[in-house]
Amino acid sequence: MPEENQTRLAQLQTELKTLKDTMPPEPDMACAVEEGDPINQKVFIRGDNNSPGPDAPKAFPLIMTKSDQPPAIDKGSGRLELAQC
User: Fold this and answer.
1) Rounded Cα gap, residues 22 and 24, in angstroms
2) What angle is formed at CA 36 by the lines to CA 41 and CA 24, rounded to 5 degrees?
3) Helices then strands (H, E): number in the chain?
4) DSSP 74
5) Residue 69: which pLDDT band, with cuts at 50, 70 and 90?
6) What per-residue confidence (pLDDT) applies to 5?
């Protein structure tokens, strides 16, 4: 390998090490992994999280429900109801 490529590779490896050393720690776990108090998520207008719109009702994806929509999910996250569907 030419010397200039070796020098550039060494620079990039040093930069990578610096970036890895200064990264924030990974979170302990994702918030969706455990049950907790239910919250109503909002529909974000045009996908902008600074523009919350109406509540997004908890429901099953229509493609998974044949033609009948199961009853509304009114407690918890709805994961159990989805698993039983």
Assistant:
1) 6
2) 80
3) 2, 2
4) -
5) low
6) 94
**Could you give the CA distance from residue 69 to residue 43 in angstroms, rounded to a whole number?**
20
Residue type, 83: A
Cα 36 to Cα 57, 76, 77, 79: the distances in Å are: 17, 7, 8, 12
Q: Of 45, 46, 76, give the one whose Cα is nearest residue 58.
A: 76
42, 56 Cβ separation under 8 angstroms: yes
Give residue 18's identity as a one-letter amino acid code. T
| Pair 71, 50: CB distance under 8 Å | no
CA 13, CA 44: separation in Å to the nearest integer? Answer: 40
Structure tokens at 38: 């239910």
Give every CB contact of residue 40 below 8 A, 6+ residues apart in sequence.
55, 56
Record the tokens describing residue 70, joined without a space: 């199961």
